[in-house]
Design brief:
The chain is an alpha+beta fold and 357 residues long. It has two domains: 8-141, Histidine kinase-like ATPase, C-terminal domain (Heat Shock Protein 90, 2-Layer Sandwich), CATH 3.30.565; 154-348, Phosphatase 2c, domain 1 (4-Layer Sandwich), CATH 3.60.40.10. Helices cover 24% and strands 30% of the residues. The chain has seven helices and 15 strands. The chain has helices spanning 20-34, 39-59, 92-95, 110-116, 200-215, 221-231, 324-335; strands spanning 8-15, 62-71, 76-85, 119-125, 129-136, 154-159, 169-175, 188-195, 238-246, 251-257, 260-266, 269-272, 290-293, 299-304, 342-348. The strands form three sheets. Strands 1-2-3-5-4 form a five-stranded antiparallel β-sheet, with helices on both faces. The chain has a five-stranded antiparallel β-sheet with strand order 6-15-14-11-12, with helices on one face. Strands 7-8-9-10-13 form a five-stranded antiparallel β-sheet, with helices on one face. A hairpin with a 3-residue loop joins strand 4 (119-125) and strand 5 (129-136). Helix 1 runs antiparallel to helix 2 (39-59) and helix 5 crosses helix 6. Residues 102-107 have low confidence and may be disordered. GO terms for molecular function: ATP binding. Residues 151-349 form the PPM-type phosphatase domain. Keywords: ATP-binding, Nucleotide-binding. It holds the Pfam family HATPase_c_2.
Amino acid sequence: MDALTTGAMDETWIRQDVSSTARARRAAAELARRVGMSAERVGQIELAVTEAAVNLTTHADDGALLLRLIDTGPAVAVELLAIDHGPGIADLDHARRTGVSTAGTPGLGLGVVERMADSFDVHSVLGRGTVLVARFRDREKSATPETPLPEPTMTGLTRPLSGEQVCGDAWSAKSVVPKEQTGDPVPVVVMLCDGLGHGPLAARASGQAVAVLHRGTAEDPKDIINEFHHALAGTRGGAVAVARIDWHRRRIDFCGIGNVSAFVVADDARSSLLSSPGIVGHHLPRLRGHEAALPPGASVVFHSDGLTERWSPAAMPGLFAASSTLIAAHLLREAGVRRDDASVLVVKDPAAPGARS
C-alpha cells in the first residue's frame, strides 16, 4: 500500500480575543519563514492574515483562526482557516472585491486576502457564520505561480480542548492500490481516532493508531481495528472509526468502535454508519463491518464526540458542493463543542464537479 500524507504540519489555533490579530500575524510569519519564503511574501501573508483576524474580531460573535503548513505536492504552503459564529455575509461577491472593508482595515477587505493567496474560498450561512480558507506558497520559487493550488478531496481538522495545547484526536489515510496501476480513482483506507480523555496521554493513543495504520498491511476495517486493539493496549485506548472507500466501485466498508460518528452525505441528506460500544485497546466487542453505497457526488464524514450529531446538510445550503476544507471547517463551526477535543474528516467524491485530487 502507498501512504498518503495527511498534509498538515505545525498547526496553531488562535481564539478570537483582543490580542488575536497580533498573535495570528506573528504565527503566520513564523510559518512562512520556516519554509524559506521571501521577506516580500512573508509581508503579504502578514497583511492577509491581519485582514482576516480583524474581520473576525470586528464582526463575529465568536471565532478562531487556524494556521498550518500544508504539503501541496510541489511545495509547502501556509494555510489560513478563519471560522466564525456571526451574522454571515449577505453578498459574498461584493465582500470579495479589493477595496471593500466595513472594518476600515489596512488590507481593504476580503479582496486583498484573495489577491495575496494562491487559492482562496469562502462560504457563509446567513445568521450562522462564515468560513474562509486561503493558502499561500512562495511564488518566487514556484515554477507555475499563475496556477492555483489544487484543492484536496480529503481534509481533516483537529482542535484541542480549550486550554490544552495538544489534541487527543488524530486522523490519517493511505491508498490501497498505487495510482499508476489503474486509471480509476484509488481506493483509500481512512481512520479517525479519539484518544480517551484529552491532552498528551490521549494524543499518545491516537498517535499510536496512526502509526499502526501506516505500518500495517490489512485492508479490511475489522482487521485494522484488531491491529489497533493490540497496539493500544498499553495506552488509554480510544474510540476509532475505519473505512475502506472505493469510489470506482462506489462502495464503503466501515467498522467503528466507540463514540465516533460516521455518515455518507448525498443530496442534502445523510445516512449513518453505525459503530459498536467499546474502547479500542481495552474492551473490544465482536466486530461487525458495514457496507454502504456511495452515490455520485457523495461525501464521507467522520467526527469525534467533540462535535454533536445535531447538524443537518439541509441547514447549510450549498455547503456539500464546496471544498472538503470548507465542509470540515463549517461542521466544526456548526457542531463543535469546547468541552472536549474535536476532530472531523471529510472525504469527497473525486469525480464530483470541481473536485481535484
